[in-house]
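Problem 3 from the worked examples.
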Amino acid sequence: MLIVFTISALAVTLGVGYRLGHSNQTLPGWVPLRVAALLGSQPAKPTATGPVIYYRDPDGKPLYSTDAKTTPDGRPYTAVHASEDVSFDNPPETAAPAQDNSGPKRILFYRNPMGLPDTSPVPKKDSMGMDYIPVYEGEDAASTIQISPGKLQRTGVRSEPAALRTVTRPIRAPGTIKLDERRVAVISLRAQAFIETVENVTTGDHVTKGQPLFKLYSPDIASASAQYLSTVGDNARVANLGGRKQLIDGARRRLENLAVPADVIADLDRTKTVPLTITWTAPRDGVILERMAVEGMRAMPGEVLFRLADTSVIWVTADVAERDIDAVKVGSAATIKVRSLPGREFKGSVALIYPQVNTETRTTKVRIELPNPDDVLIPDMFADVEIAFGAKKPVIAVPNGAVIDTGARQIVFIDKGEGRFEPREVKVGTRGEDYSEIREGVGESDRVVVAANFLIDAESNLKSALRAFTDAEKAK
């Protein structure tokens, strides 16, 4: 019965409305109320304002477009205006001044809600329909920047506390393997001689100290040897022992001045015979770098016959950029990698910083001494050098991205919580690969912004510009 009555009442109501509408008569007040009660009253949808931001699927599917388009069956996408878009910002503040314990605050001006350098002395909306934000007296202090939580969430602002860390940074430079100049030797004669035979040693061979290299005949060495034997065997001509010793020492010194090896002189003392040829041996362990001796040649005094080098210790000369040279110290640890030996690292230390700068490359050479026991490091190989640099004990440090360098100063933003940030000038020390030492301006418990601080910096610059604008208006 209730259903029948409801349907009848609805029909009567609609009928009355139809007749009155066609007869230009006014409906009784109870009619629209009755119709609303029967059909269910729905609140009116607010009118969309602002420009069209994007277009969405008419069926509510997660399909969007920046331009107008249609569905596969020909239906147009629904336009979404600025006022209909979802916003995470705080609700717009009213134009009425906020109240506090000290009384009402005066509104200085209204600023653009998107952070643009645009202000207004009266309330207004931007092109997207967003209300301008009022700036109250006392809120434009230079020490604090206020940012809405919605904007912080969208831009990904993060902060973390400053902490004690060991800040290190490797100084990278290209290098070249070089011979240790102190371990290079040449073999030459101090008297004219003829090379009789040369041993089977060639350039690149490893030789040991005392290993025979060649045999020679020298008239000067033979004459000095004969004089030495004559002096040693002549007992009658010298009456006193002191004079005899001086003659023997003089004859021996002549042989030494001719660079006759000590084992050859020992053979003279043992055999009491002047040898026809003398065997010349290697003065040290090393690699033959050059062989100039040839059988049958005449060697003049000072002529180089062999050049050899001890490669158990080698040098690495690195070209360090001029801006990094102050960070390199004698004794600093260095790591060397060569391209022909991937995966291997060699450890050494800085032995010398050369006292000049290459005017063409603006680099300074740094010498690193490196042990080479297995002789895998060959002279003139290219090397990648990393020299350790940084504080040896923990210091207060923040991530590199937290520091904004303006050229004239360095600042960080301190997170005060609730969207409030304070710019603070700091003194930066050592800059590591990931962290920078802070010598002044930040304590161990301070939280600094480490991500998206460019947004806060933009807000800070805007606030400074608006403050200057306000001060100029007050001065008028």
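Problem 4, a separate protein:
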Amino acid sequence: MGSAPLRVAVVGSGIGGLTAAIALQAKGFEVEVFDQASELSEIGAGVSLGGNGMRVYDALGIGQAVRDVASNLQRIEFHHWKTGDIFYEHPMGDWYDEKMGGPFLGAHRADLHQVLLAGFDGEPHLGKRCAAVNEAPDGVELEFADGTKAQADIVVGADGLRSAVRHHVTGPDEAVFSAMSCFRGLVPIDKVPGGDKFGLTFFLGPNRHLVVYPVRGGELINFVAYVPDPEWTLESWSSKCEPADAVAAFEGWNDTVTTMLGNVEETGRWALYDREPLRKWSTDRVTLLGDAAHPMLPHAGQGSNQAVEDSAALAEYLTTDGLSVAEALQRYEHLRKARTRKIQMGSRGNAACFQLPDGPATDERNARLVSLPDNVAWIHGYDVYADIRDSLS
């Protein structure tokens, strides 16, 4: 696609945007990253990375740095909401690493973000809210709300669920509210009963469930507690609530849950949205990545991993001999669309499965968990690089 390095503007400096920037720089592109935030502040939330995502970070040379700031989760456990008893467990650790091609890690989002910032050769341009994308046959101009502009050969929209870049690609659309919100927080491990034994831990109960795992090398326990709530519609990572609200929402649950929820210093709360799968991700010079392309509810733990896979695929296709930029973006979109759609739809369905009342339906679900490792292998054991090679052969 020519000898001069192409200029790529990445809109969004989250996990997907920075991973894409690193992957593109590794392929020789000139990359600038723009973000609407005025500062990159620490977000008190965890993120899970599976073998499919870690395969990419290993290929980019930052896998060990990610491991160094994360917790390697040694098992998966499902607990009864009231008694706390384990009704299904399975080893992870070495078993998972060997089967899925990488570890399953729990990381503090801010720690992962620092690794990615260190891996990117440059500094994101902050305070740059994208207001317009003007595309021409020979390039793209970005207009920002502060009146400044930037020029690029390619634009990557990694600016999340409410992406401004997506509006350029697909036109207006509406977020889909799940009628569910989540409480999120981080608790020192010594304030969580049995927290030193947690791996990837689920507490499942009627109309509610929690996902819990250690981060920061086991220093902290991250929890995400999901509740039905058609009234709470605020979708903001900075939105807070009183810890007592979470405790009240899980009244009658086992002591581990209520003690954990009550010992957090600060509780975040936000509504859960996604969007209908897009029919189109790309124009000739603009494409989407991560939540901007396929926002998904968190019930499969794959939002960040899918953005990481996207980043690898985009960089590989843009450096494939014989493909124009437009052709490369179409190949990227074609490869990624079916897989992300399937995971996106599966994430919607998981919440109902996790929140069944005690009874025959719960017994049936619990029996099916025996086959869980095989059922998720297509997600966690996926090799995006092998898939790209197959698509080009």
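Solution to problem 4. Residues 204 and 389 are 40 Å apart (CA to CA). The chain has two domains: 1-40+124-174+278-351, 52-65+72-106+176-274+356-393.
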